[in-house]
């Protein structure tokens, strides 16, 4: 259960985010950039280890074809 001060804080934060939506100042813009950077880092590490990753366009998990490593 959420307390009234917490509800007010979330409402204020969402109102502020609505004014920033679609701009580089937006939380969601920064989140997308941060996650893309982490994804690209992981993809490069997987490739360097000899596996073939399937790069997601919008998701959290990275699928990898590890058959090039052999049995």
Which properties best describe this structure?
mainly alpha, Aspartate Aminotransferase, domain 1, 8% strand, single chain, 71 residues, 2 helices
Written account of the structure:
With 71 residues, the protein is mostly helical. The chain has helices at 4-20, 27-48; strands at residues 52-54, 63-65. It has a single domain, classed as Aspartate Aminotransferase, domain 1, CATH 3.90.1150. 55% of the residues lie in helices and 8% in strands. A two-stranded antiparallel ribbon has the order 1-2.
Q: What would a concise description of this structure say?
A:
This protein is mostly helical and 71 residues long.
Largest sheet: 2 strands, antiparallel
**Can you tell me the CATH architecture?**
Alpha-Beta Complex
CATH class: Alpha Beta
Round the Cα radius of gyration to an integer and report it: 19 Å
Low-confidence stretches: none
């Amino acid at each position: 259960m959420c307390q009234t001060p917490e509800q007010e804080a979330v409402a204020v934060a969402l109102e502020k985010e609505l004014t920033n939506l679609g701009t580089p100042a937006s939380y969601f813009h920064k989140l997308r950039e941060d996650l893309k950077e982490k994804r690209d880092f992981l993809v490069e590490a997987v490739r360097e280890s000899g596996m073939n990753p399937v790069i997601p366009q919008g998701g959290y998990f990275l699928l990898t074809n590890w058959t090039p490593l052999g049995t």
